[in-house]
Every structure is written in C-alpha cells, then in structure tokens.
Amino acid sequence: MSRLLDGQISHDKVIRCLSQAEQGSKELWGYVKSGVREAENDDGALILDDTIEEKPYTDENGIVCWHHSHTKGCHVKGINLLTSLVRYEDITFPIGFEIIKKDLKYWDEKAQREKRRASVGKNGLFEKLVHQAVRNNVKFKWVLADSWYGTTGNMNLIHDKLRKYFIFGIKSNRHVALSLEAKLSGHFQSVESLDFKDGECKTVYLRGTTPPVQLLKKVFTNKDGSTGTLYLVTNDLTVAADHLYDIYKRRWRIEEFHKSVKQNASLAKFPTKVERTQRNHIFASMIA
Length: 288
Fold this sequence. Notes:
The chain has eight helices and 13 strands. The chain is of the alpha+beta class.
C-alpha cells in the first residue's frame, strides 16, 4: 500500500492504525450513520446472518478457531463473523458486526483434548445487534434471518419487546398447533407433517412463542435440478404469501455483502497473529 501511494502513507502508519484501540460496531455506526439517515424510510429491513472465513494456516486464538460450517457439514478453522445490515429498497448499509469469540477453554473427555467454546453464543450476539440498531434509532419494519436465528426467544423479543415484524426461516421439525385451543391443550405436530401446498400460508402457533404466526411453504429448485422446501414464519398476519416471500428475498443482500467483503476487501488476509490487530483489520475491511 505504501509503495502504491508513493510513500504518502508509511508502512508504520498502517501498523499503528491496526494496533490502536479496538474498533467495532460503535465506530462502524459512526462511519455509516449519515448515509443511513439520508436513505432511511419506514419500510426498512434489518438483516442478520453469519459467515465463516477459513484460516487453516493461522495460529489458533479466541477468534481464529474451529466452527461448524453448515455449507460443508463439518468443522473448519477460521473466523465466524455475525453482521447486521439495514436495507432500504436497493440501498444497503452494514450497521453492526460481532466476531464470535470462543474465549473459554475446556477439556473434551470424548475427544481427549482441550477445546474452546464461546461465553456468548450467536443468538446472544444476534440479540445484542438488534438492540444496538434500536438504540441507534435505525428505522426498520422487518427483521430477516435464516432458520439458525428463528428461535422462540428471538421471535418473542422482536414481537413482545420491540413491536416489530419478523420473517424467519424455520426447520421442518419445528412443532406447531393449528389453533389456540390446540396450543393450550398441548396438541402440536411437526411442520413437515402439515398438508398444504407450495405458496400457501397457514396461521399457526409455534411451540414456545407468544403470538400466532403465518407459516408459508415454498418449494424451490436447486441448480443441480433437485428440489428443496423452505418454511417461513412471520408475526404479520395481514401480509400476502407472495409479498411475504418477496420481503424475505431481501435477505439475500447479506450473502452478497459477505462474499464481497471476503473477495474484494480481503476480510481475513491479515499478516498478524494478535487478536486486536486481526479485529481492526476486519473493521477496516467492513469500512472498505
């Protein structure tokens, strides 16, 4: 970088920048706040998801460690990053991020070796980022996330405390009641056992959640020709099925963001072994 800028910025200045006080969501919000305020409207979507950037050759520490990759179906060594974006029509801003830190060491009797676990899990950090958006007075109507974050706790938080709408993916083995009477009497059945068509919505009660929700079934075709089924739930009982799916498709923007910050902004290509400088490099990539 120093060479490309003909020495206008010295190598040492970059090192000092990465070694300064830790930069995080607060500093990111300060950077993007004016742009968010200019674009915001009442139909915004708060989108949250995590991604893993593999770092197989970097020494293990609290943030470079082993995580389960749902894409590969196995554990990989790398950085697990949880990001929150806000989207207004076609404009999107990253407004917060958390690095999943496995800061506790323990002995695994089965594997007979020392392992790490996080003192705050991904759903705890999800809640933290949602509260941060509210404290920063970010305007949004919807909270969008995949099935990993479609927990009863997250749904009750968004519905009961924040008075917002959510659209979450849920797994087919979740249990629902088809009426309030069935819920009160404990008569639940799995989502996959329900008889309804592609694109059809049903009003149901998820086990453990306060509000009734709309459940949408969507059958899609993969690139290899195979088919899959997506189940979505929302606490907005007035939204039409087609519109519900269209809103959820806004979530894809976070996949594009994660791909871009890895490929175009060198998210994990830091030549350092110290957690603080690694974290600040990630922050700099988000800014870029």
